[in-house]
Amino acid sequence: MRNILAAASLAVAALTALPAVAADAPQKSVAAVHQEKAALAGKTVSVQGKVVKVNNGIMGRNFVHVQDGSGDAAAGSNNLIVTSKDTAQVGQQVAVSGKVTLNRDFGAGYLYPLLLEEASIAVK
Asked: Signal sequence: where (predicted)?
């Protein structure tokens, strides 16, 4: 019985260690974030989707590209780039929550018209 309780306690601790996705942040599609970016600038939003690309450890953060099937590939509105201390693997379904940032210039030619920054990433 003691072993079962210890295992249950470890499981609860592991679950609470997962990155938190802001429950109060409005849920948006990738396309909606692109479409409403001016109104959303500086606000926290949540998005769910599939990780399609990951670049870890760039400029002290991880760059995770998320798509949810919405948006237009030709216009670039089907992909949302998320920066975070958290990461995920290509192919994983994730819930992300972060601050909408426009025209972020990291220098050296790294200019992003739209980012979701300082995000939390939770693998689903």
From this structure: 1-22
Domains of the chain: 20-123 (2.40.50.140)
Question: Looking at residue 23, what is its pLDDT?
Answer: 57
pLDDT in tens, 26-82: 999 999 999 999 999 999 999 999 999 999 999 999 999 999 999 999 999 999 999
Query: Can you state the percent helix, strand and coil of the chain, rounding each to 5?
Result: 20, 45, 35
Separation between Cα atoms, residue 61 and residue 50, nearest integer Å: 19
Strand partners, 81: 65
Nearest to 122 by CA among 98, 96, 100: 96
pLDDT at residue number 24: 75
CB atoms within 10 A of CB 93: 14
Helix (H, G, I), strand (E, B) or coil at 7: helix
The secondary structure of residue 27, as a DSSP letter, is B
pTM, entire model:
0.81
Could you tell me the CA-to-CA distances from 38 to 41, 51, 55, 114 in Å, in that order?
Answer: 5, 24, 26, 10
